[in-house]
Amino acid sequence: MANNSEFSSKIGLIAATVGSAVGLGNVWRFPAETQANGGAAFLLVYVICVLLFGIPVMLGEFAIGRAGKSDAIDSYRKLSPGKPWWISGFLGILCSYLILTFYMVVSGWTLEYLYQSLSGELFTPIPGVEEGSNLQFADRMQEYVAGIWPPMVWTWITITICGAVLCMGVQKGIERVSNILMPLLFLILIILCVTAMTLPKASEGLAYFFHPDFSKITPDVCISALGQAFFSLSLGMGTLITYGSYFKKDTNLTKTAFTVSILDMLVAILVGMIIFPGVMSFGLEGESFGGSALVFVTFPEIFNRMWCPQLWSSLFFILLSVAALTSSISIAEVSIAYFSNHFKMKRIPATCMVLIPLVLLSALSSLSNGVLSDWTIFGYTIFGACDAFTANILMPLGAFIMAVYLGWFAPKGMMKDQLTNGGTIRNRLAGTVMFLLKWITPILIVIIFGASVLMK
Ligand code: PHE
Questions:
Q1: pTM tops 0.90
Q2: CA 336/CA 373 separation, integer angstroms
Q3: Atom number of ligand 1 nearest to Cα 236
Q4: Closest residue (by CA) to atom 7 of ligand 1?
């Protein structure tokens, strides 16, 4: 019998999980963080963080989800009844909802840019602005992103698309859409990467990206790389606990975690291989990529200097929209799974309950005419604060609690059972994973945080 709360095939399961992992974090956040944190040195620390922390924590989340067969909170409750570990799941859901509030908005901007690229409007000269100058795209961004109605309507369109997929359920919605969109994403990525290699200063860009200067590795760079690894792999937010609960009994968790992490890193690296050659070739290296400038100003700048800007820009924004939509879906699924499990709600009302407040919030934010989004907390805008707080603090904290739980307090043998499918498959890495979760992950998270606080 078809079971709409399980992924039906291996490919579908990988596509959906990669769909969650590959998002704005890979295409937008990764190059900006790389530039802000010393280029190749950041890439190196990031890869180490993925291998040393990311994969074990991902396995931990899969295991909790599949063993508990429930949402991020109730899985902990089922595994350790009466104990407070479910708080880690609660933090995850909270964090995922915070992220969703800005993730959906940015996904809306992406769709708007896709529309403007397809229609060619993005590249039409703005009266009064000198053609070919930077201001062209900075002004466009002001017009599209800082306006009142368009960003709000595009956010609503995003919410509606995600809502429609989510209402259809795990197998018929999430899995089916991922099966179509993920191959498309990889295809576009490869086309853009091959094209970037033909740019005049491609090799300089690659050297910046791949030759590390070890003196640039500081505790802050390590925290940012750790935050990036967590964000990019969708960890610490209950997403992969939720997806893990949709895995079948015979899914090989270790193979899945390696496949997903490597594909996710590959996407980030391919994006680096597009942006850095572009930046070097067109003399944009002095510009800051921070904030929204990277995808909405720097990328269009690069495309504008290539032949047929509209084509490259459209391909890029299809890529970005696909990445953003499949990740948004997975972030919303965390809360939807919780409501439908815990309160025994049907999928459609649970989906509405999660998404309608976002519709209202986006209206409030747009109609406040930027007041809300311009607010600053500790020198960060609301977006910046949400991003830094969730990726650099809440997500590693959630992972810390989860590693301590799995290493020391979870039911005996649960993790091993999950890693070996109840002893039916051999898993040479099971001991190493347990050792990493018990000792290395919690200790290194504390050391990295301690060092960064002491250096301030
Ligand atoms: N991994 C996604 C990205 O890189 C973001 C995400 C975080 C999705 C947490 C789900 C959960 O954009």
A1: yes
A2: 26
A3: 9
A4: 234
CA–CA separation, 172 vs 2, rounded Å?
10
Tokens of 297: 């100003």
CB proximity list for 213: less than 8 A, separation 6 or greater: 38, 39, 40, 41
Residue type, 44: L
| Per-residue DSSP letter, 392 | I
- Rounded to whole angstroms, the Cα distance separating 141 from 116 reads 11
d(CA 95, CA 72): 12
Residues with CB under 6 A from ligand 1: 20-21, 23-26, 231-232, 234, 237, 239, 327, 330-331
Half-sphere exposure of residue 442, counting CA atoms within 13 Å on the CB side?
Answer: 14
Per-residue model confidence as pLDDT tens digits over 122-159: 998 877 776 666 668 888 887 787 777 888 999 999 99
> Measured at the alpha carbon of residue 266, what is the angle toward residues 260 and 267, in degrees to the nearest 5?
95
In angstroms, the CA 137 to CA 390 distance is 29
Q: Whose CA is nearest to atom 6 of ligand 1?
A: 234
Q: Note the pLDDT tens digit of each residue in 269-283.
A: 999 999 999 999 988
The rounded distance, in Å, linking the Cα atoms of 242 and 61 is 8
What torsion do the CA atoms of 390, 145, 327, 101 make, to the nearest 10 degrees? 50
